[in-house]
Design goal:
Bound molecules: ligand NA7
Number of strands: 20
Largest sheet: 8 strands, mixed
Shape: globular
Structural class: alpha/beta
Distance between the termini: 32 Å
Length: about 575
């Protein structure tokens, strides 16, 4: 099969088409993987459910959607021309410009003709006789669509792409408009003068509430658990500053590589106990007044390690909230009591707390008055009925594994991936799964992508996987599969970072909890908490050892010969 363009694809079932590599998803990860595969001279195709590319940045069009990491650390670093030609407009780019950026990149790399849009993958089955994956699409009407056959199947399906709705009786009876933030319509949504509800106060809810509070007729926020938020301090990037950023890109990316989370912000290594209260307060006020994740990631390390230090800092932030919210009772409701600062994802905000000072904004604490049902006109809590024109669900995602569960992956012996991962994911390096040969879970569960700045992490994952595919092909292997022993060892390694970690002990999407998904009320080891640097080092070591931990079939080269060859082969390969 040669290149496939969405414009010339017949709809409906037809005989299967074969290509060497299929990548599911046209987001940040899928775009780069496709580029790598094409530059290796492979036949490769992206299958994307959306009508266009962009992944997260295609779907999340809700008002206020933007980066919490500095724009110039979110872009790809691998292509000098892209870095030179693209101008970020804001320090923390909003969704429309980010989507524009991804389109610019795709056009620059000329990958778009190798993407098929409106192509929802529903199932993928490994054929053990042919060592090929059979990938099944569904048509928009739900009927069975085309089938593709490929040698390597790569998932680039996003870690926050399976939106979840609260299970509230009567939601379907509501006669006004309602959307999940992830599915915010492309057409303008009128807000002026309307009675609007937002359910959910995670990073998304905080962005949307801040943005629309002064644009709607009235806003009612339904909060179950508040989060610790801190100011984003976004600002425009002038032409001169952009020139300066371009001149410093090498330094900026090196700085990101040197921090545990891949962001610009690394921890303050001065021991907490050796600081005076005045010194701490001065530093914390400086962080609070500075842009980005510094407040979370450049803090004293002890703040995220020890409950005592965490409590002192949480109290500092609680006072900031009290100072910004006029009504003391509302302020108290906005201060988390069940977890400390930074142990869940910290939403960065722009005038979030001030939104509650508007006479048109009301906060409903669901721990006091839970929602009982939704009806034709609005929301009924245990205390009263609220009428609405628009209900916004900012209720999050079946994070990290949800997108996998929506596709029926069938591996060796008919095993289903969703069964194997029933109690949580189990992978080798977050890159492969025993029993599912030739399937690469790019930036998947138990990789560092989930816990660190996403684009640098996916660049590492994509480059490693692309090198691996090249290596497998050069050796003439037909089949590559993580061994059970290697997978078991990796899972234990992943678990080892959970012990004693305050983040790992807190219920959040990082740790696999979601009240809207059956069975997701247990700790799942979803995330590699060992840091970006350690993770990259592990990947490098495995490659240098001749891809230790993987089993290969299809060529008669001994394992020892592979190991001998591997080191020399890697010299001169991509350095990351
Ligand atoms: P999150 O962070 O999972 O937040 C979801 C919010 O929705 C959170 O406040 C939940 O409360 C709330 N929620 C979920 N279900 C319900 C029900 N049934 N009733 C009331 N409230 C509910 O998702 P986001 O989209 O905000 O952010 C996800 C990531 O996207 C973010 O971290 C960024 O990296 C990008 P809870 O806290 O569970 O009590």
């Amino acid at each position: 099969m040669s290149t496939v363009n969405s414009a010339n694809q017949p709809s409906g079932h037809s005989s299967a088409r074969e290509t060497e590599v299929i990548i599911i998803g046209a987001g940040v990860c899928g775009i780069y993987m496709l580029h790598k595969m094409l530059t290796q001279g492979r036949e490769a195709l992206v299958l994307e459910a959306g009508d266009d590319l962009g992944g997260t940045w295609y779907w999340n069009r809700y008002p206020g959607a933007r980066f919490d990491s500095e724009s110039y650390t979110y872009g790809y670093s691998f292509n000098r021309e892209i870095l030179e030609e693209w101008n970020w407009q804001e320090h923390f780019s909003a969704q429309p410009q980010t989507l524009e950026y991804l389109n610019f990149v795709a056009d620059k790399l000329q990958v778009r003709p190798h993407m098929r849009f409106g192509a929802r993958v529903t199932a993928a089955r490994f054929n053990e006789q042919t060592n090929r994956w059979h990938v099944q699409l569904s048509n928009p009407d739900g009927s069975e669509g085309d089938e593709y056959i490929c040698r390597f199947l790569c998932t680039a399906i996003g870690m926050l792409s399976a939106a979840t709705y609260p299970r509230i009786p009567g939601a379907e009876d509501f006669k006004g408009e309602s959307f999940h933030t992830y599915y915010w319509p492309k057409e303008p949504v009128s807000l002026a003068g309307r009675k609007v509800a937002v359910i959910g106060t995670g990073a998304t809810g905080v962005q949307v509430i801040s943005e629309i509070a002064d644009k709607v007729g009235s806003l009612t926020v339904f909060q179950r658990r508040p989060n610790w938020c801190a100011p984003l301090h976004n600002s425009p990037i002038s032409a001169d500053e952009m020139q300066d950023i371009k001149a410093r890109y090498d330094e900026i990316f090196a700085q990101c590589r040197a921090t545990p989370n891949g962001f610009l912000h690394g921890p303050n290594r001065k021991p907490f106990d050796e600081t005076t209260e005045a010194e701490r307060l001065a530093y914390w006020n400086e962080l609070y007044d500075s842009p980005g994740f510094g407040i979370w990631l450049s803090n004293y390390r002890e703040v995220l390690m020890y409950p005592e230090a965490n409590k002192i800092f949480s109290d500092f932030i609680a006072d900031k909230i009290r100072a910004r919210v006029n009504d003391p009772q509302v302020a108290e409701k906005l201060i988390p009591k069940d977890h400390g600062f930074g142990t869940r994802r910290v939403p960065l905000e722009t005038r979030y707390y001030e939104a509650y000072n508007l006479p048109t904004t009301q906060l409903v604490d669901l721990t006091e008055t839970p929602i009982e049902r939704i009806d034709a006109t609005g929301i009924q809590t245990s205390a009263e009925h609220y009428d609405f024109d628009l209900i916004i669900y900012a209720t999050g995602f079946d994070a990290i594994t949800g997108a996998f569960d929506r596709i029926t992956f069938t591996g060796v012996g008919g095993q289903k991936l969703s069964d194997k991962w029933h109690d949580g994911p189990s992978t080798y390096l977050g890159a492969q799964v025993h029993g599912f040969p030739n399937l690469f879970t790019l930036a998947g569960p138990q990789s560092a992508s989930v816990s660190t700045n996403f684009p640098p992490a996916i660049e590492a994952a994509v480059e490693w996987t692309a090198d691996f595919i090249e290596w497998v092909s050069q050796h003439g292997y037909e089949r590559v599969e993580a061994s059970q022993a290697a997978e078991d060892e990796w899972v234990e390694h992943v678990k080892s970072f959970y012990a004693g970690s305050m983040l790992a002990e807190t219920k959040s999407w990082f740790t696999g909890y979601n009240s809207n998904v059956d069975g997701h009320n247990i700790l799942r080891h979803m995330v590699y908490f060992g840091g970006a640097h350690t993770y990259r080092q592990k990947l490098r070591e495995i490659a240098e050892q001749g891809y230790e931990g993987f089993d290969f079939e299809g060529a008669s080269v001994s394992r020892a010969a592979i190991s001998r060859h591997a080191k020399s082969w890697r010299n001169g390969r991509t350095q990351w």
